[in-house]
Amino acid sequence: MSSFIIQEQNLRNFTEAVFKKIGCPEADAKLAADVLIASDLRGIDSHGVARLSGYIRLWEKKRINATPKITIVHETPTTATVDGDSGLGLVVAPFAMKLAIEKAEKYGSGWVSVRNSNHFGIAGYYALEAVRKDMIGIAMTNASPLVAPTFTTERLLGTNPMCYAFPAGKYPPVIVDMATSAAANGKLEIAQRAGKPLPEGWVQTNSGETTTDSHALKSGGSLLPLGSDREHGSHKGFGLSATVDLLSAVLSGANYGPWVPPFVSFLDPLPDLPGLGIGHFVGAMRVDGFRPVEDFKTHMDKWIERFKSAKPIDGSQPLIIPGEPELEAEAQRKINGIPLVNSVVKDLNEVAAMLGIEGI
Amino acid sequence: MSSFIIQEQNLRNFTEAVFKKIGCPEADAKLAADVLIASDLRGIDSHGVARLSGYIRLWEKKRINATPKITIVHETPTTATVDGDSGLGLVVAPFAMKLAIEKAEKYGSGWVSVRNSNHFGIAGYYALEAVRKDMIGIAMTNASPLVAPTFTTERLLGTNPMCYAFPAGKYPPVIVDMATSAAANGKLEIAQRAGKPLPEGWVQTNSGETTTDSHALKSGGSLLPLGSDREHGSHKGFGLSATVDLLSAVLSGANYGPWVPPFVSFLDPLPDLPGLGIGHFVGAMRVDGFRPVEDFKTHMDKWIERFKSAKPIDGSQPLIIPGEPELEAEAQRKINGIPLVNSVVKDLNEVAAMLGIEGI
Question: Number of C-alpha atoms within 13 angstroms, CB side, residue B167?
């Protein structure tokens, strides 16, 4: 699959050039590229430059504004609502997280709900901004509807990820960053390319039957919430996804549920939208708002050590600390480069040709 | 099963009398009873008076302090750590939530981590305190270890519930209140009483194999995280449970992971504990810290209406809004009384006899 390997800096330069070419100010282009490259470095290939052409096509349709005037529309000492002016989520969400961190520096914690934004990449990027300041970082976003709530056949929620990140001492941070669906859409694409059936419990048909057909979404099927079915707790996955939707959109004035605008440019948003764009929710809490940072880190390390030493079912597969595989991928890809599948290379070179810049 | 029905006020009087008899001040006894009765009213029978004898037995062992001196040990304008002085979680957690709400009233949001506490009943009780003030309420707690993280056979985490509650307008609040395991322990007890096998994916044996044996925990088995297995996202359930543990205990200085003291009095805490008691984490955010309350409630109502009208798989089972079944049970039980199974009646009368007060 990965016949092409590119060095981080080259992919970064290319991505910045693309964003600058559509009119993003230099600093915004750098920032947006940084969010995408962070995803590719961490091995979350579905959320990195594989999505670059998607952003550009939404910009072509005038659904993404390359020069947004991002504003704070409502505020208390520790809370705010930000309007992203249809900007790239990759630029709007960093603004929101910076604001949350500033509030936390002054008052202990800061919480920002965001409306009128677009796809923001990986939630973990923002939560880690807080971790670097010895804060606990929280980030979530709603997304285009693909998931049917328990007992229903309608796609009413996105894969709505939530992320919590905690600084540790001698170990890397613990980063819980997860879609609230049983499986993310990217896993379906992998099965499609391999021509393999899905495990039961990931998707259902348009009449609500479990199916192993990796193409079921194309005929009106839907992803299932984490838990897969009622007996195994899918109402919990639905509840978590609903929580993300309410904090990100009902709280900020963005679109929610089935009204979240599609990420793909060939589908138009629904008529009579109840809000503006898509929504995010980010937060930061100072660790030393609760206990001295060194005490906290000492116990984080002890927690990590105890869990890493848990007795494995199979000796060849030890417990994985949340966030660990992504940090290992990052260390490795920073040295060896980032592998891209052929379809992504082709896609990026088409974007380059369209914009009249050099390809990769 | 429910041959015995008792009116709310009678059960409340009895429960208050029990707490007063062990030495709780009048106000604390009323408060602790209110938390337990709220659970029984809402149909969460496992977390109401069914646990009363458990609290009393821990008090007998001097592991619960009936007259705690609850203190704030660390604080910023919007964050705090509270030490519960080994008090009832049913008294300590209300103190913490009140503090979070006071901070939110002044600064927009408030967050309190709690150490040196005990089992706090249902998370939803605390989150709803915030909802009554037009705030979003958050509550979570760690708990005695019963759940094995993905890939392991060791019980390292509790069923660690998390709750998010949101006020609505003409509809009742949306309350997402969920254990982060695939199934809670109470569901195993129901299967045991009925002599029925469990669905696969709830528990595993002591060697990590899925089993349908409802008694598997008695022979070293463990509950599974939400998601059940790696393929269906159990690493996400593990991540959520870890998040609850870190916010509740590593942040406050309580015990975490396998060191959380058992709720049952016949099991002693492990030696060399890294913290004090069990931990909770509660928070409150003012809705009007983000947008006008009326706007928010209008959109909450629209969200609820849209989801309630979702196309059902089976016409006889419509979508359930999180929190709705509990509110329906409450309305019904306030009128018709609270059903108690015989074993709970017996247990409560044994407690009464032991303390020398009138039974139910």
Answer: 22
- In this prediction the pTM is 0.98
Q: A275 and B299 in contact by Cβ < 8 A?
A: yes
Cβ atoms of A81 and A252 within 8 Å: the answer is: yes
Residue B219 in tokens: 């022979």
Tokens, residue B187: 């569901």
Q: Is the dihedral of CA B99, B102, B107, B110 positive or negative?
A: positive
* Residue whose structure tokens are 């901070």: B103
Strand partners, B225: B181
Q: What is the ipTM of this complex?
A: 0.98
Whether B109 has its CB under 8 Å from any CB of chain A: the answer is: yes
Whether the CB-CB separation of A178 and A237 falls below 8 Å is answered with no
Q: Contact, B295 vs A253, CB < 8 A?
A: yes
Alpha carbon distance B31, B306 (integer Å): 37
Q: Which residue in this structure is represented by tokens 């393929």? A: B231
Whether A4 has its CB under 8 Å from any CB of chain B: the answer is no
Cβ distance B53 to B74 under 8 Å?
no
Q: Closest Cα to residue B236, out of B141, B154, B142, B149?
A: B149
d(C-alpha B91, C-alpha A324), whole Å: 38
DSSP label at A46? G
Distances (CA, A) of B110 to A162, B113, B130, B287, B326: 20, 10, 10, 13, 26
Name the A residues in 230-289 with CB < 8 Å from any B CB: 231-233, 235-240, 242-243, 245-247, 250-253, 256-258, 274-275, 285-287, 289
- Domains identified in chain B and CATH numbers: 1-67+336-360 (1.10.1530.10), 69-182+224-308 (3.30.1370.60)
pLDDT digit string, tens, across residues A183-240: 988 889 889 988 999 999 999 999 999 999 999 999 999 999 999 999 999 999 999 9
Q: Which of residues 189-208 of B touch A (CB under 8 A)?
A: 199, 201-202, 207-208
- Check: CB of residue A29 under 8 Å from CB of residue A14: no
